[in-house]
Amino acid sequence: MDDAASPRPGTAELETRVSSLRGRFPTYPLTFLGVIIAVGAIDFADRAVLAVVFEDIKTQFGVSDTALGSLVAAYTVVATLSVIPCGILADRWKRVWLIALGFLPWSLAMFWQGAATSFAMLFVARMFLGSIEATNGPSSLSLVGDWYPVERRSRVMGIWRSFEIIGSALGAGIAGVIATALGWRAPFFVFGGLGLVSAAVVLRVLREPERGLPDALHQAEQQLARARGETTDFAGSDTRSGAVGSPSTATPDTAPDAIDYHRAPLRVALRRIVGTRTAWVMVVAASVGLFASTGLGAWVTTFFRRFHDMSAAGAGGVTVIFGAAALAGLLVGARAGDRLTAVGRGRDRVKLAAVCYAAAWFMSVPGFALDNTVVAVAFLVAAGFLVSVPIAPLWAMWLDILVPQLRGRADALFSIIRVLAISTAPLVIGAISDATDLRVAFLAAMPVVLLNALIILLALNSYPRDVARARADALAQVGPEG
């Protein structure tokens, strides 16, 4: 018999382990994903609601654009103080319970905004919106990563991250209609009620999965394939001869850490997290990108009301069009990400992101510079599509490089950086708008999208090594009995 065709030592043991892991991994319904999308959409809708009524708040309380920008940043206070404790809870407690709990202060804060009689009261109310950022962010990411197989990760993450677009678009559209018909306060009451409904649905519908099982199963299956002498595509890395990230340079059998990360002290967990180079590259790139997208998202309806003479409902309607384009880009990117992984070009997801970000910057400049409404909207729709294509592949890569038992703490730690970028952008754009005008502020902010394209390219070499180590640790953490 040809020795090359003979099973390698350990094949029987690996077959037993794969079979055991498959038996422990149930098929979770897409209903769970739909609920998580709805939860995130309602969270993001509060930002769209505020953006739609900026002009009304400015008139009501007689404040500057800088002050309006500070309203978007207000939630940073509670989010920053609570995100690390909530990240620890997301790794140790029931994540479903944590998500539901976060909606209680969020809903009360929405009601408080609707009842605000002063700008200071409005600002304090918005501070408590940070509760949902701290609870929902790390918990939802961790849940989605544990519900569905690694092989479908880009598509699943693309569907999940659609909550940003759905929440922003529908939030703006619904808030615009409600504000036009009933006044600027009414949308806050409506969405506050939806938050309480969301908490009840989360508790009733969602189920807690075993942590790290998809990654452990994927790693065990690849070990079995190599033991049988089969060609494998490790973690979507480029398996072409001599390429960085091929099995010869990023072996998936990297010695795992002998640490129980589920119960590890924060100091030990942070040391593992901050040692992941790709995570830093992705977080810095995401923060730069979020500075642009959040700043523009907060002011875009105001831009159309000021420079294109639209009503609140009309500007909200344009935002819905942008949302549809962004959703299309998200779905295209999700499919492209899994396709690149399937054909052994997982690292090319980084290149895809860089190209799309650069093209989005190119399309956005005339979109904000031109006075013709139809042409401006067309350019911005194209930019919205392009900037959304990388979302799913990059979030899939984010899950790939993190030990599943550390995802809550990792996302919480890096959320602080992202939150600062998100909260700073509207304030900076508002200040530039006060000094010049909103159009100049937009054009000044757009080059950061191009910078984002350059930063993300730094992940090309570190990603294969980081995902190899994370998958080896995932298999060790799950263990033979869970």
State the shape.
globular
Helix content: over 70%
- The end-to-end span amounts to 38 Å
Question: What is the strand content?
Answer: under 5%
On the 0-100 scale, what is the average pLDDT?
Answer: 80
Low-confidence stretches: 1-9, 233-253
E-strand count: 0
Tally of DSSP helical segments = 21
Q: What structural class results from the helix and strand content?
A: mainly alpha
Radius of gyration, in angstroms, nearest whole number? 23 Å
Taking the sheet with the most strands, its summary is: none
H/E series: HHHHHHHHHHHHHHHHHHHHH
Features:
single chain, 77% helix, 482 residues, 21 helices, globular
Topology summary:
Blueprint: H1 11-24, H2 30-52, H3 54-61, H4 65-73, H5 76-92, H6 95-114, H7 119-127, H8 130-147, H9 153-182, H10 186-205, H11 213-227, H12 266-274, H13 277-307, H14 312-342, H15 348-369, H16 373-388, H17 391-401, H18 407-435, H19 438-445, H20 447-456, H21 459-478
Description of the structure:
With 482 residues, this protein is mainly alpha-helical. It contains 21 helices and no strands. α2 (30-52) runs parallel beside α9 and α5 packs antiparallel against α18.
Short description:
This protein is an all-alpha fold and 482 residues long.
